[in-house]
Design brief:
This protein is an alpha+beta fold. The protein has six helices and seven strands; from the N terminus they run H-E-H-E-H-E-E-E-H-E-E-H-H.
Length: 173
Amino acid sequence: VTQSAETSLAILRTAAVPTLALKGLALGETVYPSPGLRTVSDLDILVPVKDLFRAMEALRAGGLRAARGAPETPADLRKNHAHFFSPARRHEPLLDLHWHVLASARRDDDDEPFWSQATSLRIGTAETRTLCPEDQLLHALVHGVRWTRMPHVRWVADVTMILRANQGKFRAD
């Protein structure tokens, strides 16, 4: 997982696209005692909405393939908040490229508070950013209560680990 994340982040860095790791990719590095303790089924990476099409071009040039239905115009960006890319090698995890943190908040400026409070994160040799602890908690809770055909209960463990790792450190504002 780390090597795949490093590769994807390097592609985006080369294209001068800011990145922010989300979900298991970030939580494994920030709140779990070891990254291997948090299962990661895909690599969730956020890019600013203004950089999305440039990011998609860079990923395609780097050998990743967009799943069917990829956004093609700015109007398409309101239809969803993320899109999957398949890696060149089958054994690597999918890349879930996000342009919004929350599926329910898809306006152009909805993510500015997340970006402005983000903290630095290193994944292997790659530099990126991640949500601040308060926003990680919000993201895990919101993501956990969304209905899916196959419920993912790992959000309960994620919330527990976020609270434990940040006990007494949350901002009051």
